[in-house]
Automatic annotation (TrEMBL):
InterPro entries the UniProt entry points to: FlhG, MinD_FleN, P-loop_NTPase, ParA/MinD_ATPase, YlxH/NBP35
Domain of life, per lineage: Bacteria
Protein name: Flagellar synthesis regulator FleN
Species this protein is from: Pseudomonas flavocrustae
Gene transcribed to yield this protein: fleN
Keyword Nucleotide-binding listed: yes
Record key words, sorted: ATP-binding, Cell projection, Cilium, Flagellum, Nucleotide-binding
Length: 276
């Protein structure tokens, strides 16, 4: 099957909206590209428009067109700043689990064609804990849960972790605090979350760090540019750089499960109760 070049697949999720998940996905992608990684961003947020708005891009075609066989994956790729490539997912993608065998094979072929020149695939999932989110997250190699200091953020993150753990056997989660007023606030949020997961679940949570609250982020959004590119010396940008270095040190999957084709395979398998 295709290449044996391992690709790090990271699903960025948050359990709900408002935690700055897309901002994290885009800027982490740019920070990884900046240290020389070949990065692709899959916009799986079917509320769509998110990544396009942040980057000022408007997709003509989406992954739905690839699945239906109307075009190749390379035809839907958008080119973002820093050499990152973006795959717009489209609202048609909720039918992913109901693909015909030919569509299924086509989708896997499409992704294995690009895996040759790819190091990291970042999947920006939708908000919430619907089937669509779960299918993308359980297929990924790494799950990055974004939390912030909002009353429901920890509750929502916990609900997502519990669902993925109990129903889909996901045991390892990485946690990133976003919009943190102080580094301590980020660590406190992580402590709050581990307090409940340690009591009720058998999961390993790892703290990735905090992205500080930064006015530059808002200014960048107004310019339809990611903060990392618009204000590279901003506090948030420097934090994304540090997080990218950490992410870059995460172990690459040594077994074939780490290949892009397997990510797609798992993506299109119907989510049945438990998942090995």
């Amino acid at each position: 099957m295709g290449s044996m070049h391992p690709v790090q697949v990271i699903a960025v999720t948050g359990g709900k909206g408002g935690v700055g998940k897309t901002n994290v996905s885009v800027n982490l992608a740019l920070a990884l590209a900046d240290i020389g990684r070949r990065v692709m961003l899959l916009d799986a947020d079917l509320g769509l428009a998110n990544i396009d708005v942040l980057l000022g891009l408007s997709p003509k075609r989406t992954l739905a067109d690839v699945i239906s066989g109307e075009c190749e994956l390379r035809d839907v790729l958008l080119h973002g700043p820093g050499g990152i490539r973006i795959v717009p997912a489209a609202s048609g993608t909720q039918a992913m689990v109901n693909l015909t065998p030919a569509q299924h094979a086509g989708l896997i072929q499409a992704f294995s064609d690009i895996s040759e020149n790819l190091d990291v695939l970042i999947v920006d999932t939708a908000a919430g804990i619907g089937d669509q989110v779960v299918s993308f997250v359980r297929a990924a190699q790494e799950v990055l849960v974004v939390v912030c200091d909002e009353p429901t953020s920890i509750t929502d993150a916990y609900a997502l972790i519990k669902l993925l753990n109990r129903d889909h056997g996901v045991t390892r989660f990485r946690v990133l605090a976003n919009m943190a007023l102080t580094p301590q606030e980020g660590r406190n949020l992580f402590a709050k979350l581990t307090k409940v997961t340690d009591r009720f679940l058998d999961v390993a949570l790892q703290y990735v760090g905090a992205i500080p609250f930064d006015e530059a982020v808002r200014k960048a959004v107004q310019k339809q540019r990611p903060v990392f590119e618009a204000f590279p010396r901003a506090k948030a940008s420097l934090a994304f750089r540090a997080v990218a270095q950490r992410v870059d040190g995460w172990p690459l999957p040594a077994n074939p499960r780490g290949h892009l084709e397997f990510f797609v395979e798992r993506l299109v398998q119907p989510a049945i109760g438990t998942h090995a």
